[in-house]
Amino acid sequence: MKRAELVAYLDDLLNIHAIADFGPQGLQIEGREEVTKLAVGVDAAHATIDGALAAGADMLIVHHGVFWGPTKRLTGAFGFKVRRFFEADLNLYAAHLALDAHPELGNNAELCRLLGLTPVSGYFDYKGLDVGVIAAPPQPISFQTLVQRFRDALQPPLRVEAHGSEMVHKVAVCSGDGARSMEEAQALGCDALVTGELDYTMAHAAEELGMNVIYGGHYATETLGVQALARHLSEQFGLPWAFVDAPVPL
């Protein structure tokens, strides 16, 4: 498949150019023109690049790309990383908030599916985009049941805060760094928050707000979207793919 065709499809599917983010998203590094195999991962880290090359991939699709915040010089460790892509003729495509929020393939959508929740609305706005979802089970469940579903679906949570009601009617789901959405989630009537990592500024918030929180790990909660996207591309275009697992314990 031609790179340009695949990139155009991804850009449209993810609405990549309409979503404000912390750095330029989409095709970040241009490699070979023909794409016959994909690798997907969470971060554009050396371990992920190694895995993509070992798998024989022509394009690496990640959640966290190489561009983040202010422009950086192509020197030192950063320059070395970027050169690896050019030397290997490996394409790099990044989808951050666009993949968090995608209603079908996103990290939050996949978390809801695995936890048996139905998304009902968005919340936690970032420049016009709701990066989290409010979801509900078909019928109220216990918070401990929600915790067990998370353990069964992913890795054991790094931290569980049980300060809210025993039964859960409404859940806020925000992969990655969503602890700061806790106050908004409570104001919207949520009994629990499922997110990735604990922000220290929110260390006491769950107890003070009377909220149940599952901190499932930034990395773990963001392994889902890239794999859902890869499955979709495989179904659409017959492209084989590999997931490169390079865990970060946060």
What does this structure look like?
- The chain is α/β, with parallel strands linked by helices and about 250 residues long.
- The protein has 2 domains: about 5-95, NIF3 (NGG1p interacting factor 3)-like (Udp-n-acetylmuramoylalanyl-d-glutamate--2,6- Diaminopimelate Ligase, Chain: A, domain 1); about 100-220, NIF3 (NGG1p interacting factor 3)-like (Udp-n-acetylmuramoylalanyl-d-glutamate--2,6- Diaminopimelate Ligase, Chain: A, domain 1, 3-Layer(aba) Sandwich).
- The protein is built from 10 helices and 13 strands.
- It has helices at about 5-15, 45-55, 75-90, 95-100, 105-115, 145-155, 180-185, 205-210, 220, 225-235; strands spanning about 25-30, 40-45, 60-65, 90-95, 120-125, 130-135, 140, 160, 165-170, 170-175, 190-195, 210-215, 240-245.
- The chain has a 6-stranded mixed sheet with strand order 5-6-10-11-12-8. A 5-stranded mixed sheet has the order 1-4-3-2-13, with helices on both faces. A two-stranded antiparallel sheet has the order 7-9.
- It is elongated and about 55 Å long.
- The model has no long low-confidence stretch (mean pLDDT about 95).
